Amino acid sequence: MEIIHLSAECYPIAKVGGLGDVVGALPKYQNKLGHVAKVVMPAYRNKFLIENEFEVVYNGWCKLGFHDYSVNILREKTNKLGFDLYLVRINNFFERELVYGYDDDTERFLAYQVAVLDWIAQWEHRPDVIHCHDHHTGLVPFMTAYCHQFEKLRHIPSILTIHNAQYQGQFGWDKLHYIPAFDLWKSGLLDWKGAINPLAAAIKCAWRITTVSPSYLEEITVSANGLEDLLAQERGKSFGILNGIDHDVWNPRTDPMLLKNYTVRGVDNGKKANKVALCELFNLDPERPLFTFIGRLVGEKGADLLPEIFHNALNQFKNQISILILGSGEPEVEERLTQLKLVFPGDYNVFLGYNEQLAHQIYAAADFLLMPSRVEPCGLNQLYALRYGTIPIVRRIGGLKDTVVDIGDGGFGICHDQASVTDVGHAIGRAFELYSNSMPVAGKQHIPVEGKQVTEIRKYIMQLDHSWDKAAQQYIDIYQM
Ligand code: GLC
User: Fold this and answer.
1) Which of 478, 375, 401, 394 lies closest to 164 in space, CA to CA?
2) Distance (Å) from CA 160 to ligand 1 centroid
3) How do residues 427-472 score in pLDDT, each as one tens digit?
């Protein structure tokens, strides 16, 4: 099959969150299954664009309202990513570094979608399926089905994957003229609660819908930032497919970003070596259990709870635990997390920003990863943690619930029910107990206790298979429907 993935993000070209990781891996695994999966995304002016070689495969114009914009589509020449990559260059809109966050994001992603469809409409053949990811590509299923200028694309099946229903890309009806002409009586398909809503339009028009975990599929009929009823209505064509991770990129045995590589057998020593090096960098004590949080510092991820959680834990386990955070997001959370450094120097540190290499190093060094998410459609960080032998402490929600089993239930992680300071605090207490029962901790008398040992859990979780092989086939099965 020929599959066209449309997405605003794709690792390593441009990544803001998990969406980038998924779109950077899934096509590669679909190709391994013998299909032809391609990625078509905007050409942001970033390092990848500057450092790689491209050939121009299309020159044209794209009409947005009363203006025409020149479009070039570039193909990466070497196929080094394991799939064909096409970048859509539209001068006014993507000659910028960031993926999102501009006042004209609506126009930018609309222009991208129109330009891509103009291009595909000129092909001599039709792809077998167009796979749209999140709201930035959400108008495609509507446009292929109903816009006059895309008549030729009418019968191409479209599928929408919802990575996160919180973001929907709504804009006012005053911008309707940006969408190429269609029979106006179909306008209702674009509408949700009085605005043009690209995610809602995709939910209505795509031939199939998927969410990135089975639990999230259930949860969004109850809580999805206003789209609950619509998602319940369209439940019949919806499926939950758990994300995988790219085992080529995320492999502690070969990962070039690590300070020391390690295998399942050598996990204790390997993690220790990484921890010693990292703790030195961040002025932390490597003899204590290291807790971490990696990710966007936003309410959805429960990041606003972290300052209080860590404040309490550092008081309760004085001189017995270390904490290191990597992330960026809401200024207030960043500020409060930074201030904690003054209160607990030597026990706690934070790196504000996005740093892929440091993230890998922390997964390798840490003992526990916290994910107190309020919403978690899949969550990839717990999967990276597992692969690196780091024990996840997660809230039972969405994909976290589908991938982490509590030690008390015969599993390997620590789970809690609420995204609250008390629940997470209690979970940290359980983690500390688990750790100090099987590992020596500075300042605490070491009396090993029977039961599941940290080493045993590490070895077990590193061998869990969350690679893309299975999910890649599940998507193919849905395309085939
Ligand atoms: C979004 C979700 C996250 C998911 C990722 C990839 O970032 O918030 O839970 O893992 O998309 O699907």
Assistant:
1) 375
2) 14
3) 999 999 999 988 777 776 666 555 569 999 999 999 999 999 999 9
Do 22 and 170 have their domain in common? yes
In the reported structure, the alpha carbon of residue 214 is separated from the centroid of ligand 1 by a whole-number distance in angstroms of: 13
Lookup: tokens for 338: 């930074």
- Structural domain that includes position 340: 267-465
**Contact, 305 vs 419, CB < 8 A?**
yes
Rounded to whole angstroms, the Cα distance separating 461 from 389 reads 6
Give dist(CA 157, CA 130) in Å, integer.
6
CA distance 382 to 100: 25
pLDDT mean over 100-108:
97
Both 155 and 274 in one domain: the answer is no
Q: Please report, to the nearest 10 degrees, the dihedral formed by the alpha carbons of residues 225, 228, 230, 231 taken in order.
A: 110
17 lines ligand 1 (CB under 6 A): yes
Assess whether the C-beta atom of 8 lies below 6 angstroms from ligand 1. no
How many whole angstroms separate alpha carbon 443 and alpha carbon 40?
A: 55
Residue among 387, 406, 369, 403 nearest 459 (CA): 387
Looking at the structure, do residues 475 and 461 belong to the same domain, yes or no?
Answer: no
**Bridge-based pairing state of the strands 67-76 and 54-64:** antiparallel
SS3 417: coil
Per-residue burial over 189-219, b = 16 or more CB atoms within 10 Å of its CB, e = otherwise: bbebeebbbbbbbbbbbbbbbbbbbbbbbeb
Q: What is the pLDDT of residue 449?
A: 59
Cβ distance 199 to 169 under 8 Å?
A: yes
